[in-house]
Amino acid sequence: MSEVTAKSRIRISFLMVGISLIALVVTYASITIATAWRAQKEVPRLAADSLVKALRTYHQQAGTFPASFRELETRVWKHKQPPDFGADGRSLSVANYYYIYHPIDAKTCTIWIVPTGPRREEGSTHFLLLTPQGLRRWKGVPLSLDEVKNLPSIPQYREMVVLGMTEQQPIDLGRKK
């Protein structure tokens, strides 16, 4: 009987080693996937296209650009839980990007888009000059918090150069008949 008991204990030991190895592989894979998902959430993702679309929709409806994101929320976005637009209603944080909105006049507005978060260096700073007819865009390196505090609503060319911003191909938004 002792021989049978010894063989059964060895089989149980091998079974336990097998189960332990499978559990180790599954745990390692789960941790690796969860870490990759968390890291992907930290990468800045630009939402400028949807913002420009919402601003153009507002302009088509009202004939002017909104004074703040709050007006855009009321007329176009209509979220169940409105995001925090800051004290003046002209800032917004989405997907590790910080958006700063400046209405210039009825037909012009500007938007600074600055990457934030732990992986901000992987994003680019953007500046948009939006009119009903077109969109002028600049792109550059991520700016520091000190630089963000001092961003002008309408920067001059030399300021854009100092900030490392280069103009991209403009986009014609005029309606085609």
Helix content: 40-55%
- What value does the average pLDDT take? 88
Category by helix and strand content = alpha+beta
The biggest sheet amounts to: 7 strands, antiparallel
Q: Which quaternary structure do these chains form?
A: single chain
How many H/I helical runs? 5
Please characterize this protein's 3D structure.
The chain has 177 residues and is of the alpha+beta class. The chain is built from five helices and seven strands. Strands 1, 2, 3, 4, 5, 6 and 7 form a seven-stranded antiparallel beta sheet that branches. The radius of gyration is 27 Å and the shape is elongated.
Compose a concise summary of this entry.
With 177 residues, this protein is of the alpha+beta class. The chain has 5 helices and 7 strands, in the order H-H-H-E-E-E-E-E-H-H-E-E.
Which short descriptors sum up this protein?
2 domains; 43% helix; 7 strands; alpha+beta; 177 residues
SSE layout:
Layout: H1 2-42, H2 48-62, H3 69-77, E1 91-94, E2 97-105, E3 108-115, E4 125-130, E5 134-140, H4 145-149, H5 157-162, E6 166-167, E7 171-172
Antiparallel strand pairs: 1-2, 2-3, 3-4, 4-5, 5-6, 5-7
Helix pairs in contact: 2-3
